[in-house]
Amino acid sequence: MVSTVRASSFAVHRFVDIDSTNDWLLAAARGGALDRTAAVADFQRRGRGRLDRRWEAPPGTALLCSVLLRVPLAVEDRHLASVAVSLSAIEALHAVAPCAVGLKWPNDLVVEDQKLGGVLAETEGTEDADGRVALVVGLGLNLSTTGPSDAGGTSLLDATGTMPDRDQLLDAYLDVLSVRADELCSATGRAALLSAYREHLVTLGRAVRVTLHDTSIEGIATAITDHGHLVVTTADASHVIAAGDVVHVRAPHL
Ligand code: BT5
Per CATH, is 3-200 categorized as 3.30.930.10? Predict the structure, then answer.
């Protein structure tokens, strides 16, 4: 670790290189780290995506940040922690590096359907005596890397023509997240998060293909339930998708 500073309501631990900021914070959470601890790295040796996939970024080419939130969220509302993170990233980008960024379900940041960033949320342990659960939510946001060549990614450098200042972006992100994380703790705040999520979700209204375990379905993404599930309407039914990989396709096959 190179330094620890306090930014916004977060205590930020900075690393030159690390295995994974999520792994470090999960271990810190097990050791009793406080709500609103953050870990930021220039480089991750084993950056992780969802489902044991890799998140790849050469040194200094991405914002790689995980936060620990200890929040009183019921299991069905925990997806909102990822929502708070992805919305905070979008709002920070509007201030620091404006571009036409939207959300692809569940929480990919995309510019014209190309992936600019991703979010990985993990739970550590069970509820404490106050009903709070420890959630570690990691954000990977491409500054100049576009990720692996076969991943169809993009970067802020490509999208805006300039390389944004990582620390300025980090400060703006943690400032917004300080407010968005508070919203996780009240019913009105959670409703505000859901409403903003639906506004930014470019998947809604689009023709999509959803890959599930051993099958896939194609239809129109028509709604998001209050629990963050995607409703996909096909010719004969509506399917409620809790988890899966979505591809935006050009034409519906109804
Ligand atoms: C995600 O997974 O999008 C979640 C990524 C979360 C990364 C952050 S970085 C800080 C924190 N610490 C960690 O260890 N992780 C978090 P998923 O939806 O599964 O997407 C993974 C897929 O995206 C990979 O299989 C690649 O195809 C692609 N990919 C990998 N690196 C990329 C990059 N830099 N840009 C665009 N796509 C990438």
Answer: yes
